[in-house]
Request: fold
Amino acid sequence: MRAFGFVAVILALGTAFYLFNRSAASGPGAKPPQAQVDVVAIRQRLLTIAQTERQFRATHGSYGTLDQLAQEDLLPGGTEERGYTFSADVSGSERFAITATPTDPAKSAWPTLQVTERMEVTERQ
Reply:
């Protein structure tokens, strides 16, 4: 009798997992799994670059361009990743905005992401 209960629990969990995955992949605004993985990776990379900007400001008194960060070996991986290109808009020691724009033609419908000195990542289509 215990084995039957165990099998029933496994089947119930498997069914719930299947239904959850199916609804998550087809819900409104749902992205394909690879898009979700890439966007999460780009968000993390933006936060890393923003932290690097803070480090650069602490030692130089102002935020740096991506070229300046790269010259000091503070930008590992360069300015491209996963079909996105990073660019910076820097205003001395007051503000910065790092933008990740999809440049891969297969990702043209993917969002553009941006992080500012507030360490907030925003996403727009």
Remarks:
- Residues 33-60 form the longest helix (28 residues).
- Strands lie at 80-81, 84-91, 95-102, 112-116, 121-124.
- The chain has a mean pLDDT of 84.
